[in-house]
């Protein structure tokens, strides 16, 4: 009797009991995973905010030395010489603990072409900078194939041949790739969907950045706390690059999209799968993989998450559009 009792007390789970335990564990894991995902997303969004905060500090450090914000990009319009142009992301590198990279690029004395054509310096345009990358973004550290530089490389007696530096190998004769950026400067809310409608003043923008812009704080009449400086763009909308813009005369308004964004289009607007030189919809807007909106740093250095709901049409009359324009005479207490 004693042996029978001991044997019965040591028996294991039955199959039914085991299945019940497995089911309970599965339910608990199913309840836990969304919470874990939410925590991870919150952490990534916080890191993205920190990146933009550093960008804001860089912009103000630049301002303290130059008494103006950096130009969106500086093109040699007066001479009429076509070419690539360094962007605002390069201008503030010394204030983002990237002084060594800035000195190696030497943008005051060297063009993007000069850097690209040197086998000893091309890699500088391919440096992934964590401060310019949102951790929630898809894709790798290379720019999207739509974000490229069209440059000419000597080909011996045959003269010059067009080549691309891009994010992929979609183009014949590709020289390499560019580093991606998830942050674009604000051109404002003024945008022309048709390339033929663009005039020189449109390229200057009505935001904090533009072609050869020299925006000073007194020009931001809406107040720096009411004016967007830099915001996100995800790989889904072809992201951006930090080095600069493409051939500005031949590209027309498409050069803006390399490093600048417009509030003319809504946040997270769907991209169009056509040549982005034909329209800016889905490729010149702001976007992110954070649920419901995107992060922005304002001209005063503060960082805010703006809901995509405030960016809906009508395009230039939305709350978002007013935040992007520096001098529309309207200040917004809540957004």
N/C terminus separation: 79 Å
Structure summary, number of beta strands: 12
Please count the helical segments: 9
Which parts are unreliable, with pLDDT below 50 for 5 consecutive residues or more?
A: 154-162, 167-173
Strand content: 5-15%
Largest sheet features:
5 strands, mixed
Structural class: alpha+beta
Which shape, going by the Cα principal axes? globular
Tell me roughly what share of residues is in helical segments.
25-40%
Indicate the mean pLDDT. Answer: 83
Q: Evaluate the radius of gyration.
A: 25 Å
SSE order? HHEHHHEEEEEHEEEHHEEEH
Describe the protein in words:
The chain is α+β, with helices and mostly antiparallel strands. Residues 154-162 and 167-173 have low confidence and may be disordered. The chain has helices at 2-9, 15-66, 88-91, 99-105, 112-117, 200-204, 248-251, 254-259, 319-324, and strands at residues 85-86, 149-154, 160-166, 176-177, 180-181, 183-188, 228-232, 240-241, 244-245, 260-262, 293-298, 303-307. The protein contains nine helices and twelve strands.
């Amino acid at each position: 009797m004693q042996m029978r009792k001991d044997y019965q007390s040591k028996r294991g789970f039955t199959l039914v009991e085991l299945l019940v335990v497995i089911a309970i564990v599965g339910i608990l894991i199913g309840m836990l995973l969304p919470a874990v995902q939410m925590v991870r997303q919150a952490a990534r969004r916080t890191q993205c905010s920190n990146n933009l905060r550093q960008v804001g500090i860089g912009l103000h450090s630049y301002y303290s030395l130059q008494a103006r914000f950096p130009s969106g990009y500086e093109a040699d319009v007066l001479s009429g010489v076509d070419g690539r142009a360094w962007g605002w992301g390069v201008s503030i590198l010394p204030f983002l603990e990237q002084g060594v990279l800035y000195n190696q690029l030497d943008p005051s004395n060297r063009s993007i072409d000069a850097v690209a054509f040197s086998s000893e310096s091309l890699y500088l345009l391919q440096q992934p900078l964590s401060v310019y990358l949102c951790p929630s973004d898809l894709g790798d550290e290379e720019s999207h194939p739509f974000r490229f530089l069209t440059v000419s490389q000597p080909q011996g007696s045959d003269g010059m041949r067009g080549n691309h530096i891009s994010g992929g190998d979609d183009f014949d004769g590709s020289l390499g790739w560019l580093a991606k950026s998830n942050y674009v400067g604000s051109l404002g809310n003024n945008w022309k969907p048709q390339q033929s409608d663009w005039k020189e003043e449109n390229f200057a923008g009505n935001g904090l950045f533009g072609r050869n812009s020299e925006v000073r704080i007194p020009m931001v009449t809406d107040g720096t706390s009411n004016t967007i400086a830099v915001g996100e763009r995800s790989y889904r909308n072809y992201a951006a690059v930090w080095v600069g813009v493409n051939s500005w005369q031949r590209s027309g308004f498409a050069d803006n999209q390399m490093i600048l964004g417009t509030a003319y289009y809504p946040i997270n607007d769907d991209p169009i799968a056509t040549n982005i030189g034909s329209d800016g919809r889905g490729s010149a807007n702001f976007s992110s993989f954070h649920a419901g909106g995107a992060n922005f740093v304002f001209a005063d250095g503060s960082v805010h998450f703006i809901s995509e709901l405030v960016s809906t049409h009508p395009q230039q009359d939305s709350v978002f559009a007013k935040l992007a324009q520096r001098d529309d005479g309207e200040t917004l207490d809540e957004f």
